[in-house]
Amino acid sequence: MKSIIIIPTYNEKENIEKLIEEIRKLNRDFHVLIIDDNSPDSTGRIADRLAGKHSEVSVIHRRGKLGLGTAYITGFKYALENNYDLVFTMDADFSHQPKFLIDLLEKAKEYDLVIGSRYIKDGGIQNWPLHRLILSQGANIYVRMVTRLPIFDSTGGFNCYRREVLEKIALHTIISDGYAFQIEMKYRLWKKGFSLKEVPVTFIDRARGASKISKKIIFQAFFLVWKLLCRGSIH
Description:
By secondary structure, the chain is α/β, with parallel strands linked by helices. Helix content is 41%, strand content 18%. The chain has a single domain (3-231), classed as Spore Coat Polysaccharide Biosynthesis Protein SpsA, Chain A, CATH 3.90.550. A 7-stranded mixed beta sheet has the order 3-2-1-4-7-5-8, sandwiched between helices. α5 runs parallel beside α8 (215-231) and α7 runs parallel beside α8.
């Protein structure tokens, strides 16, 4: 199946080339789409060089820091327009380890959305401070309790979507970004009756670069679940 990995970037010059190298070492026919939000640290130029060197790498440059959710929507539209069967999403900072792409790929043969989960048996997190771990686990428990979404890692961004899933979602109606984007996508797909499967992954806190998590993103995720309930399954 024709597969593409969407990787949004903003100031990831220390990670992006190494990440592409690790993905290529898997020896699977993964194509990669880097979506750079005009990184001031030259990430975009590095991405262009990688695209010139490797035919399976493509780059989209955006005019500024427009948000993680809109980056993924841009990538989804690109994947649909270019007839990809499987669409993966992952971070550029090695918190999502490329080796787990194989596990997601295998389960995508059976399920509509495969979720790399930190919070099921054999999953885990390394090198996070206690307050961040409590915040993340609490957020996922909160989402599960309020929405009844039957998964343990609704905020995770390491996922694989089948093409037909994205075709059934009106992408222009997505209302959220950041953590909230991940919750909204999973909730909508569940409400539409698509099959969701969690596979265990180990999440490793970034060793290089700065985290993009902000209080605004956290608050947005908190209030999103009530918006989703009020609006139902949405389009």
